[in-house]
Structures are given as structure tokens and as C-alpha cells.
């Protein structure tokens, strides 16, 4: 799962939902599971393709083996936009799998995905087996319209050979340590251009996004009333000023030139994998990419450094992930729920998916199952996943719009287009709150 890379892609789906769904849809009574011997066909729509779709389909085969009367039609390459159009057109899949956790608020508030609360209560599903942060990002304003299907956790990747050459024996724990080390590990070409960046401070490049950085400062997106707090929470200014210090160290023009020559984040030419960046923020899935695309890379992982003013936060990080639910109008909602329950609570199914997709399983039982493959680098993210400091990005009625607006602002800030940071962040709050009110509460 690589949800950070597709924030903008969910906006079209959100717009469709807002135009076609009515907020405040009431919960319906849970539909019964298929009777023994009853023949039922359910459709499953997911974003997976190729190897990842094959892995999902093998897990679906496990469900079929336990429910021989159920036939499953698995449809890959179905993003939120396509699934939303199917819901609006009255021909939804029975089970929807989404990599866009940021759209959960719209799915729940519009009723596009059914409230699973009645099913959970009827079947006495123990949600305590799922970490609190993960429970938080799969519900919106008390309505649980999704269950978690694997998770991503973001931390620090570092080039162990570069550390050894510089005599560094441990990864940085604070942002000031990260800044100092980034400068030490940076290598320059004879013409003054960047050869290797100790740490790339450019928002919008690689996995550098405000939502991946914000937990390290304890920065809050909203207050208790749901209002944007970018301008009122001093942590945001601290974060942006830290970033600008590193941008100024490198020089904006040099950074533009350097990033233009980097490979795509999810290609074999990834900058960290090619040794162009000595330290980077990324998700646990990067361990799988390195295994297949750069097996000779000597690297380590650790929690991403935290603000010097918040050392108690060390071990925190963003968590997000794939979600699964039952769309409104599903023909076989009862059978669909049985599959959703299997995919999200069956330890064997979760471990098989996690091992195949290099993601974090979302129940404590699966997290500690001996069948779960774990390298030392991957173990970092498993440990972080159980931390009470883990932070989900808050759900919003207009999906990822607030996140995209913040990143757009960051792009202007880092290039020197913002004169008064505090004033500009307060203006951004007003913009985000206005857009949110149009999307519904």
C-alpha cells in the first residue's frame, strides 16, 4: 500500500460522492450470513493489480475453502473513483477495498459505505485486538463503515554504509540531530551541485509530505470542533521552519536541479535505493522494494526523529492503510460482511496478506504470529505499530482536500514564496475550513 502517493487521486471520488450521496444515512439491520449449502456470488473490487492481485486472490481462495457455497468475483484495478461511480450507478461491488484512507470520512458521512456497527455487535467482534490509532482511521464521527486491512507505518530509513564512513553509530532521535547529520552526510559535486543529499527536505518529493512529518512535532490538524489548527498550533510553524533551515543549507535552485534527476519513488531507481539520499522517511513497504530491487543495499530503519521540544514523542509516526467495507446497495451484504470479517480478523489471512504485500498486519494476534516474516528493518515498523504514540491522519468530510492544500502551501513556503509564515498559515486555516463546510460535517 502506498497511499501517500495518491492523495490527489481520491479528490474526484470525493466530489462524486458529495454530489450523489445523502449524509446522515441511518444504519440498517445486519443481513444474515448465507445458509449452509446456499449458493451465493459476491464481487470484490480492489485497487490491486498483477502480483498484488494474485496475493489477494490466494487469500480469497482460503475463504472459499471455508465457505464452499460462496463464489467470489475479484475485480482488480478498481480505484475509489471507479468504485464510487459504480455505487452512484446502482451497481456496486459487494465488497470494496480502498487504499485511500483519507476518503473514509466521506464514505461514512455520505452512507456510500454501510455502517458495520450492527454486524460487529451481532457477531461480538472484539475491536480491542486492533490498535487504537487504526480503529480511529476506520471510523468517522462514531460510525464505523470500514475495517482495516493491513497498515502502513512511516519511519526513518538510513544508509548504513554512509553512517559507517561518517563514524555514525546510531540513528538520530531529534530533528536537530537529523539536521546536523544531514549536513555531514551530504556530498557535493565539483561544480557545487548536490551529489548525495544527507536528507532531502523537499515537500512533494519522494515520501516527503506534511502528513508524514507532522506526528514528529505533535502537530494537530484540527481542534475538538473539527476546525483547522495550522495557524494556531505552534508545532506547524516549528516544523516548517526546521524544513526551511535545511532548504536554505542546500539552496533552493540546487534542490530543484537535484530532485529533477531523481528516479520515481516506486521505481527501481528510487533515490534512497540508488544511494542518492542517505536518510529518508518512508513506509514499511520500502523493505519489500529494497529486497526485490536493491538487495545489496546496506541499510537500517528507526523511528523518524522528533522535535527537540517533544522528546517524549520518540517512536511515533503516521499510520494509515488499506480499508475494506460493504457499499450501499450491495446485493449480498450478509455474505459480503462474512468476507470482510474474515479478511480483517482471521490471523492466517492477515499474515498471508502481510507477508505477500510487505505491509503491517492490523490485529495484535497477527502481529505476533510466528508465521509473520520479519527482517530487523521490518521489525522496526512492527514495534512502532504497537506504540500508543502512533498517529492516524484525521478523517474529513471532503477527504484529502485539507492535506493537499497543506502540501500546496508547503511547496510555496519552501521555494521562498511566503513572507509571513504565521499569517499565511492562518489564511490556510480559513481556506480549509471553508472547503470543509462545503463538503459537509
Automatic annotation (TrEMBL):
Which Gene3D superfamilies does the entry mention?
Answer: Periplasmic binding protein-like II
Check the record and name the SUPFAM superfamilies matching this protein: Periplasmic binding protein-like II
Q: Which InterPro entries match?
A: Bact_solute-bd_prot1, SBP
A Pfam family annotated for this UniProt entry = SBP_bac_1
Q: Where in the cell is it found?
A: Cell envelope
Tell me the keywords, alphabetical order: Signal, Transport
Question: Which named protein is this?
Answer: Probable sugar-binding periplasmic protein
- Give the source species: Saccharopolyspora erythraea
